[in-house]
Design brief:
The protein is of the alpha+beta class. The chain has 12 helices and 12 strands.
């Protein structure tokens, strides 16, 4: 750049000197200097014009004349353009690589902006979600996938759990949908075809249901005969059979409870989430649960309940009762005599919360993530001794999932446990108009739907 300014001075100085000599010779200094300055400015205006034309039409126009400062300017512009072309080629390669990798994914991938409008998608999404590049770009995802379950999921704005739904335009395909927030208000929607897995799950569920139904009748008969024998010891075979019969009754009772819970789980997995929903008086429901576990406790525990009578929930009453009872039953079974159990139903930040705290034996951290698995037991011997089926927390998990909630467990060995769940705001009856037939779709807050 310094060399360019030196060249410019080599142009300006001779012009200035010539002007000075000419003005001295003609004795018209002002006019001569004005003429030379105008000539110099005209030269620069011509160069600016050539630069502007060249920038507009680089292939057909010529560069400014490479003299003085314009030589440095044109070199700098050419270098920057070459750098920009290199960056563009690199960016194109990156974008092409991203597209190739995205199209290689087995899942449909859709990029959404802060308003839930579709910005981009991969090839699988075109096939699986029936997206049209000419028609659907810029439209809201709720319009392109008009499913009531998806609409409620988007309105809820809680994307930690995946969503199962039928594919648009094809009810025979089952999708697992995940939404991942990223950047400033943007979201990534992923949809996976789980039709085969769903079919295997249905086969497994039907098998368990059918076996449970088939076992229920013979177990009922066996249990009935055993009770008859126990009630009439004089008709029992000779020998010490009374203790054996009582043990058999206990085991058939346990098997009947297991079958009952398996059928409950099967029903929770197969029924539509929107069937049988109504406004539930949770405070009254918890009063009933408290009375039942008081009978189960037989005075061995201090049981406390504090419930907001005005706080009601939109859901399925018998399912909520089953979930709350299983949590309370679990607390009674794993809390030693003299311990306490406290249940709370309250509002927190517009959401409805249920917590149950006990002073029981507690749970070590490595077991907590698996507690809601079927038949998972921390202590097998203690679980069987307490009469548990190993399915209670699995039922709780399914019920809460169907009501838009999750189970949070905090526990320390020897210091008791705290089980809590939070229900979303759109299910709280104080926040909705109970006259609306489907209040799930009338929440106070919105996520990707505006």
């Amino acid at each position: 750049m310094a060399g360019a300014w030196r060249q410019e001075l080599l142009i300006v100085v001779p012009i200035g000197l010539a002007g000075f000599l000419f003005s001295a010779w003609t004795e018209r200094s002002t006019g001569s200097l004005l003429f030379l300055v105008t000539l110099y400015l005209g030269w620069h205006l011509l160069q600016i014009y050539r630069l502007n034309v060249w920038l507009t039409k680089p292939k057909s126009a010529s560069l400014p004349l490479p003299y003085g400062i314009w030589n440095a300017i044109t070199r700098s512009v050419v270098q920057r353009q070459e750098q920009a072309r290199k960056r563009k080629r690199k960016l194109d390669r990156t974008v092409d690589g991203f597209r190739e990798s995205s199209n290689a994914l087995p899942d449909a991938t859709v990029i959404l902006d802060g308003k839930g409008c579709v910005q981009w998608w991969n090839d699988i999404a075109t096939t699986l979600l029936r997206l049209d590049p000419k028609r659907d770009c810029g439209r809201r995802i709720a319009e392109l996938m008009p499913d009531s379950i998806l609409t409620a999921y988007l309105l809820e704005g809680e994307y930690k759990r995946p969503l199962k739904m039928k594919a648009p335009h094809n009810d025979n395909i089952v999708l697992e949908v995940r939404i991942v927030p990223y950047g400033k208000g943007n979201h990534l929607l992923q949809a996976r075809d789980i039709t085969r897995l769903q079919h295997l799950e249905i086969v497994r569920r039907d098998f368990v249901t059918n076996v449970s139904h088939e076992m229920r009748t013979p177990l009922t008969v066996i249990h009935g005969y055993l009770e008859t024998i126990a009630e009439r010891p004089e008709e029992a075979p000779a020998g010490n059979w009374q203790r054996v019969v009582l043990q058999m009754i206990q085991q058939t009772d346990r098997m009947q409870c297991i079958i009952k819970d398996l059928l409950m789980l099967s029903r929770l997995e197969s029924e539509e989430q929107t069937l049988g929903q109504a406004v539930v008086d949770v405070a009254a429901l918890l009063e009933s649960v408290s009375a039942e576990i008081s009978l189960l406790s037989k005075g061995r525990h201090r049981i406390h309940l504090r419930a907001d009578a005005d706080l009601k929930l939109y859901g399925i009453e018998n399912e909520l009762e089953s979930a709350f009872y299983n949590l309370a039953d679990n607390a009674v079974r794993y809390t030693s005599a003299g311990g306490s159990i406290a249940m709370y139903w309250y509002e927190n930040g517009g959401k409805a919360c249920f917590t149950i705290k006990d002073t029981g034996i507690g749970i070590t951290p490595e077991h907590i993530p698996r507690l809601t698995e079927r038949f998972y037991r921390v202590d097998v011997a203690r679980s069987r001794q307490s009469g548990g089926t190993g399915l209670g927390l699995a039922i709780v998990k399914h019920v809460l999932t169907r009501h838009g909630s999750v189970l949070d467990i905090q526990s320390e060995p020897g210091r008791g446990s705290l089980f809590s769940c939070t229900f979303p705001e759109y299910r709280v009856s104080r926040k909705i108009n109970e006259a609306i037939n489907d209040p799930i779709h009338e929440p106070k807050h919105q996520a990707l739907i505006h």
